[in-house]
Amino acid sequence: MTFIDEHRDRFGGVEPICTVLTEHGVSVALLRLRRREELKPLAQEVFDADCRVYGARGIWHRLRRQGHQVARRTVERLMRELGLTGVVRGKRVVATVQDRAAERALDLIERDFVANAPDRTS
Fold it and tell me: In terms of C-beta density within 10 A (0-12 exposed, 13-18 middle, 19 or more buried), how is residue 60 classed?
């Protein structure tokens, strides 16, 4: 993977390099596996350094700022493999669960919600 990173600009990207390597018996799947294994400790390190709150997007941004060429989807896969989950913001907390089988309270004040005309009460 270091070879690919060093020669990416010279050969016009990753795909031409991978094509040449596969012609010489090097498996692209093996290269991807090695790359993921290199990135796993980096992703774990970023996750731990930021109080275990970063999601895939945050880890991806941090890795790119550190100079690592990595796709966001790759970071998502790494996080799944490592069992890492970021903090979910804005999740609604349900405090009361209604019992639909329970009996409803009686209308003791006999309210009448029918109006004879708009903006009029009886």
Answer: buried
